[in-house]
Design a protein that fits this description.
The complex is a heterodimer of chains A (about 190) and B (about 90). Chain A is of the alpha+beta class and about 190 residues long. Chain A has a single domain, classed as Heat Shock Protein 90. A 5-stranded antiparallel beta sheet of chain A has the order 1-2-3-5-4. In chain A, β4 and β5 form a beta hairpin. Chain B has one domain. Chain B has 3 helices and 5 strands, in the order ββαββαβα. In chain B, the strands form 2 sheets. Chain B has a 3-stranded parallel beta sheet, with no helix packed on it. A two-stranded parallel sheet of chain B has the order 2-4. In chain B, α1 runs parallel beside α2. Classes of the chains: A alpha+beta (about 190), B alpha/beta (about 90). At the A-B interface, α3, α4 and α7 of A face β4, α2 and α3 of B.
Chain lengths: ~190, ~90
C-alpha cells in the first residue's frame, strides 16, 4: 500500500511524529506558514517551479482550509506546515487545528468517528463553517486526484483517506493525528 | 459585461481573496443593474473553488436571475473548479 511506503520517507516520518504529539512547538520555521500570506507566498513559488495549475490548486485548497477552519483554535502551533520534496515529487501539509471531525460536528453532531467525518468531507458538499453552506474544497481535492492520477494520503484523528485515480479508500489508523496531515504525490 | 478575471490575480486560491475580489468588483466594476455577465479566465494560472465560490456566489446572490457565462476555461484548475461548482449549484 502506498501510504506505508510514503510513511518510511525520513521527512514524512518527522512530520508525522510531530503531528501526533499532544503538545509541540514549531517543527521547522522554514516550512511553517504562520499566516495565510506566508502560505500564499510559498504557494506562488511552488507554482513558479512546477507550473502545474491543478496540483497548486489542490495544495492551496488544503492549506487554506487550515486557516478557514482553525483561526483562533490551534492546539498550539499556528498555521500550516508546507514542505515540498521535489526529489520524491511529494508535498507534505500538516496543521495542528481542530481536525475534520471537530469542525464538521458543529453542523452534523451525529458524526460518529473520524473516518465518517472524512467520508463526509471528501464526498458530500457541506461546510464546517455554519451558517455558510459552501464547503467543497476536499471534494474538489478528490476530483482533482481522480482526474489526474495524483495520490493523496490524508489523515485527521484516526480517520484516513487514500486516493489514487478512481480509487478512494477510507479506513482507520491505530494512531491519532492532531489536526490534519496530508501527503500528495504528484 | 465582460470581466477579465486575471485582473484580480493569477493565482486565485483563498476564500478571503475571493470575497475581497467580489467586494471590489461590486463597488467599482459591476453595474447596479446587470442581467448577464461573462467571466473570462484567459491568463489565470490557478483557480481554486474557495476563491471561485466566493466570487460567483457573490454575483448570484447580488444579481437575481443573472446569466453567467464562462470563457477561456481550458486551464485544468479552472475546468475542475467550474465543473465542481456547477454540479453543486
Amino acid at each position: 500500500m502506498l501510504n506505508e511506503q510514503l510513511l518510511k520517507i525520513e521527512e514524512v516520518k518527522e512530520v508525522l511524529t510531530w503531528i501526533v504529539k499532544p503538545s509541540v512547538s514549531v517543527l521547522n520555521t522554514q516550512y511553517q506558514c504562520e499566516s495565510r500570506d506566508i502560505f500564499q507566498g510559498k504557494l506562488d513559488n511552488f507554482y513558479s517551479e512546477n507550473k502545474n495549475p491543478l496540483i497548486t490548486a489542490v495544495v492551496g485548497e488544503i492549506g487554506n482550509n487550515s486557516f478557514d477552519h482553525n483561526l483562533g483554535s490551534w492546539i498550539d502551533v499556528s498555521g500550516v506546515y508546507f514542505e515540498v520534496l521535489p526529489s520524491h515529487k511529494l508535498i507534505i501539509l500538516a496543521d495542528r487545528g481542530q481536525g475534520i471531525k471537530s469542525t464538521l460536528s458543529r453542523i452534523i453532531p451525529e458524526i460518529k468517528n473520524d473516518k465518517q467525518a472524512l467520508e463526509i468531507a471528501f464526498t458530500k458538499v457541506i461546510s464546517g463553517r455554519s451558517p455558510e453552506h459552501r464547503g467543497n474544497g476536499l471534494k474538489f481535492v478528490a476530483s482533482a486526484m481522480k482526474a489526474n492520477g495524483f495520490e493523496l494520503y490524508f489523515q485527521s484523528g484516526k480517520g484516513c483517506v487514500y486516493i489514487l485515480k478512481d480509487k478512494i479508500d477510507f479506513f482507520e489508523s491505530d494512531y491519532s493525528v492532531n489536526g490534519c496531515f496530508a501527503i500528495i504525490k504528484y | 459585461m465582460n470581466v477579465q478575471i486575471k485582473k484580480f490575480g493569477k493565482l486565485l486560491i483563498s476564500r478571503p481573496a475571493g470575497k475581497e475580489a467580489f467586494a471590489v468588483a461590486l463597488a467599482y466594476i459591476f453595474p447596479k443593474d446587470m442581467k448577464e455577465i461573462t467571466l473570462d479566465f484567459e491568463g489565470v494560472d490557478v483557480l481554486a473553488p474557495s476563491w471561485a465560490d466566493e466570487f460567483i456566489t457573490g454575483i448570484k446572490s447580488n444579481y437575481k436571475d443573472i446569466k453567467i457565462n464562462f470563457i477561456n476555461t481550458e486551464n485544468e484548475s479552472v475546468k475542475v473548479t467550474l465543473d465542481l461548482l456547477s454540479s453543486i449549484n
